[in-house]
Structures are given as C-alpha cells and as structure tokens.
Amino acid sequence: MTTAKLMKGNEALAEAAIQAGCDAYFGYPITPQSEVLEYLAREMPKHNRVVMQAESEVASINMVYGAAGAGFRAMTSSSSPGFSLMQEGISYLAGAELPCLLVNVNRAGPGLGTIQPGQGDYFQSVKGGGHGDYKMIVLAPASVQEMADFVFLGFDLADKYRNPVLILSDGAIGQMMEKVVFKPYTNPAIDKSSWATTGKPATRERNYITSLFIQPERMEVHNLKLEAKFQLMRENEVRWEEMNTEDADYIFVAYGLSARICQKAMDVARARNIKVGILRPITLFPFPYQRLEELASKVKGILTVELNSGQMVEDVRLAVKGKTPVAFYGRLGGMLFTPEDIEHELETLIATHHVN
Amino acid sequence: MSTDEQILTTTSSVAPATECSPDEYEMVYHKPTTLVDVSMHYCPGCAHSLVHKLIMEVVEEENIQDKTIGIAPVGCSVFAYDYMNIDMQEAAHGRAAAVATAVKRLMPEKYVFTYQGDGDLAAIGIAETLHAINRGENILIVFMNNAVYGMTSGQMAPTTLPGMKTTTSPDGRDTSFYGSPIRIAELMAQLPGAYFVTRQAVNSANAVRRAKKALQQAFRYQQLHKGTCLVEIIGNCPSNWKMTPAEASKFIDEEMVKTFPLGDVKVPAATANNKE
Ligand SMILES: Cc1ncc(C[n+]2csc(CCOP(=O)(O)OP(=O)(O)O)c2C)c(N)n1
Ligand code: SF4
Ligand SMILES: [Mg+2]
In whole angstroms, what is the distance from residue A241 CA to residue A292 CA? Predict the structure, then answer.
C-alpha cells in the first residue's frame, strides 16, 4: 500500500478515487483527462462500483447529482470545454447541498482552445462559474502525489460541508508521470440517512433534494445558510505552501504547474543572490488572503505567475492591499514559461519598481 | 353519547342529512396515504394533479412507498415532491433521466421514476431521455405531454400541434418553420432499450382507468430489469390553452389524438412474465 508507484497524474487521481470509496463515477471523454474515465471504466467494476460513460458532460454532472442525492460518494472529471457545460449542474449541486468531487484538468481556451495545459479556468472555478451565489472549495494540485492526496481530502471536505469540491488541475499535472504513494485511508462513510433519497420508510418523513425555494423569504434563509457554510470554509480550510519565505525580499505567487516552474525559477534567482520565496495557494477558494497580506508587509514585491492572462493576480492584489508592488507574468494558449523567463520577469519587476 | 345523539344535539336546528358520522358510510374511495394531505398549486382541471394521484395510488397499492424514488422536473410539476409522499429529487430542467439513471444504477432494487413535461423531456432533455432509454435503464419515465410550456406561461413546445396558437407561435405553429410535433412514444419505442411504451390520456373516467393500469404495469415491469418503460400521458393545460377543463378534454379527443394516437406503442414480447 505505502510503496511508491510511478503513475500519470490522471491515473493516480483515478486510483485514489477507488481507494477513497467512490461509489460512482460518470464522465465523458475529453483530452487531457480521458485517462480518468478509461482507468475507472477498467477498474471500478472490479470493486462493484458504478462507472458510466455519459452522453455528455451535462448528463455526467446530473448523474453525479442523482448519485450524491441518494447518499453515495460520486465524482466526475472533465477538461475546460466540458467543465463549462457542467456549470448549471454544479450550481444545482451547491444549491441542493450535495457533496461530490469534481475534477477539471484545465486546458487552454477560450472556445475549443487547445489540449495543452492552461490555467484560464481560475475565475470560473473560484468565483462561481455557474449561476447564483455559491462557492466550492477548490484544490490545486502541483504534483502527481497531490492528484491522489486531494481526492481523499476532497471527498472528506465535500461530506463535511455537504457541498461540491473541485480539484482544479491542468493538462501537465494530469499527464505527467511521477512517483506517488497512496496513504492508507478509510472512508468515514458518514450517515446521510437524514437527507439522502433511499426510499422513505414508515419511520421517517420523506427526504427530498431540491434547490428550489420559490418564496423569496425562504430563498434568502437558504442563501444565508449556504453563506454561513462558505464562511466556515474561509475560516477553516485555507491551505497553502510556502518555500523560502523567511528571508525573502520577493515572492512568487503561483499554483499548480506554474508553482512547479516557479520553484526552478526560485533556484535560478537565488543563484543570482535574489532572495525570492514562493507562496503556493493549495486552496484557490478559500484563498490565503491573510497570509499573503502578512507577507506583503515584509517583502519588496510580488510576482504572480499564471498560465492565463491574469486571473489569480486579482485576488493577490485584493490580499496585498497596495502594501507592496504586485506584477503579473503569464503565458497563454498552452505555451509554457521557462524558469529563466520567470526569473527574468522578476528582475524586470525589481528594476521597474527600483525596489532592490 | 351515541353518534346519533351527538348529531342531534350538535345539529338539532339544522337538517342532519349531510352531517352523518363517517362510520355510517361505506368507504368507497380514500386519498392515497402516499399523497401528502395538502391542496395542490395546479390550476383547476389540470391533469398534473390527477396523474400525481394515479402514480401515488399505484405506489400505495403495490406497497412500494419505501422503495420508490421519484425525480421531479422543471415545469409546472416542479413541486411534485410537495405532494408525493416518497423520497424525491428535483432535477435540473430536462435532466431527470440522467438523475434517475444514477439513482437506479446505485440502487437497482429500488423503483425509480421520472415525471416530466414536454418542454423538459422533448426539448431541452431529449438527449438525456433518448440515451437513458437506449441504455435500457430500468426506470419508468412518466411523460406529461400537454403540447405547451405550462410553467412559463404557454410557449410553443416540441409537441405543440400544427396550427396551434401559443405565445411564441401567435399565428399558430407553422410546421414549415418549426417542424412537426415530435411523437415521443413512437420515436423512443424504436430503441431496443425501450421495454414498454404506451400513450394514455386522463380526460375521461375510462381513460383514467387505462392510464392507471399502464402505470401499474410499468411499475411492475421494473422488477424484471428488462429496460425502460415510457408512459406518455396526454395531459392538458386549460390555462394556456385558454379553455375550460371540459373544453380541454374535448380538445384532446378531437384534436390531440389525431397527432398523438392513444394506446400501447411497444409491449413486451408475449413470453415476458409480468406477473409478480
Ligand atoms: C435551463 C433552463 N431553461 C429554461 C428554464 C425555464 N423553464 C421552466 S419550466 C419550462 C418549460 C416547462 O414546460 P414543460 O416541460 O412542458 O412542463 P409543463 O409546465 O407544461 O408541465 C422552462 C422553459 C429553466 N428553468 N431552466
Ligand atoms: S399552467 Fe397549465 S400545466 Fe401548469 S398547472 Fe396550470 S393548467 Fe396545469
Ligand atoms: Mg408542457
């Protein structure tokens, strides 16, 4: 169990789903995440679990709704265009308070875009891609190991808050092969009988799953109940990783694949005596605003690095509140930056702001 | 105090004819216990309330309340779970068959049905419906065809009759522009996954009896795990048809059935055992 295996990110995630006791997976093929569906189509039946290739992502997400509403651990995965199709369903899941695990292996867009990695779905993921006021915990893995770990964490958090949890990965983390260790895990199998639709025995009232509250007074009460949960997430579930921030004059803020590349850029910069550290948000919602604000008052500048045209940088600026210069560097269209590119941008930031 | 005395003392000055104790009547009908005892929000004469009752009568008579999960649509019957005293899920518009698929796959021993209007099933949700039936999901789809979008106030549906006036076809449905009404029962019966497909109405006492029989049959078929049952019911929408309920019933007999003929469209092969 605890020996390391060499696996693709998508396959590690799929294997973790089985080990996490995922009862049902529904998915539709799309590059670069089809391995999840393929792996589970092969492996889930061996464990007597339900796995289905749906007719569309719209069907997948609504199958997740049905399964989650019946109290089962349910999951789907997709990539950007497919994930866009799921947004109505995600809003319903959040509105009806159904726990489930969603995975978006982000590729570059907009439109059909390209199958290469991207991080352009940040806004959609953390600001609520579907309609109405809802939030979900968004976990951003930066390694194959985290692709596996976050499945266990994600299912547990989904159950804890009765809310969907999203793993926002990207085409590179999904496709690359690395060592992964599956830590022993037991599905807490929490009791969902008070709300799950399993058939009404004479001994209890009927259970029904809905996101509909037609009277505005009741709708607002429901909204406030949801808001209270989202506030609890903000208070209790902020996760991030720091590297070399103790003595840092500068900070890279980056998640997922970008954070991996920033790590190398940090080495390049440090070799040139530029003291740079990294803050890697692990949860994109809730975002580590507070820690970033603390760091902002200690450093001379922050460079936000993303594979998009500048999305998370808006949250970075909200956190920093003008306490230090914030610059952005990104590549688009599935193109990647090199560590040297990033280091060069850092030097530009230093020169522009004369903050050395 | 005997019941008689009670009546005399409490209603002495009023004619007692209708004030008899229930014990003195023979019970010929009671509302199924599987229906929640509240008044429904449907317009007077709307077929939704009647069909809710039929389904719940079947659930009561088959004694499967604890094993039945219903999926409500988006449409006038979105509140079905307020009335049906069973576990239910309210699906996104058109997606009931996908939701039902998951529920049934995870709990194959349960009875799972969807209840959907024509906008829900035949327009936005036709893909989920068709694929669920093609996979032969062991669910019952109750399809309430009232040829109009009731909930959103009477827009044209895929099932609107040629020439029929709606708020979005004010001069009547022009089939050269919008195509012809989709005959869902016949279309879906083509799929090998469809096990039992029938079209019924509820606009007369006899029609109601036949519709109930079809629903009962369809519930029983679920035990066989042989495929999807689709019971299309020609409903009505007096409010948006701008008719009295009686006129609506006549309209069904005179107009609707020309496009949507009643009766079984696909029945299980004679060898099929549909007995319990
Ligand atoms: C995605 C989406 N699109 C549109 C609507 C608006 N809408 C609600 S009910 C409905 C049509 C309902 O008509 P039908 O299914 O025929 O049911 P009826 O009310 O006639 O029983 C529509 C278009 C919605 N709720 N969701
Ligand atoms: S609008 Fe039509 S379908 Fe809706 S409740 Fe009224 S009569 Fe029934
Ligand atoms: Mg209708």
Answer: 11
CATH of A4-236, one of 3.40.30.10, 3.40.50.970, 3.40.710.10, 3.90.105.10: 3.40.50.970
Global confidence as pTM: 0.95
What is the CB-side half-sphere exposure of residue A87 using CA atoms within 13 A? 17
- Residue B269's pLDDT band (boundaries 50, 70, 90)? confident
- Could you give the 3-state DSSP secondary structure of residue B152? coil
B89 versus B274: the higher-pLDDT residue is B89
Residue B8 lies in a domain: no
Contact list, A197 vs chain B (CB under 8 Å): 69, 87-89, 103
C-alpha closest to that of A303 among A351, A336, A238, A241: A351
Give the residue numbers in A contacting B (CB under 8 Å), as ranges: 23-24, 26, 50, 52, 54-56, 58-60, 62-67, 69-70, 72, 74, 88-89, 92, 96, 197-202, 206-212
Would residue B46 count as lying in a domain? yes
Which residue in A has a C-alpha nearest to residue B107's C-alpha?
Answer: A198
- Where are the CATH 3.40.50.970 domain residues in chain A? 4-236
Instruction: Name chain B contacts of A74, Cβ cutoff 8 Å.
Output: 102
Q: What's the CA-to-centroid distance between B119 and ligand 2, angstroms? A: 13
- CATH (domain of B63): 3.40.50.970
Model pLDDT for residues A42-101, shown as the tens digit of each residue: 999 999 999 999 999 999 999 999 999 999 999 999 999 999 999 999 999 999 999 999
> How many structural domains does chain B have?
1
ipTM over the 0.95 cut-off: yes
In this structure, is residue B149 part of a structural domain?
Answer: yes
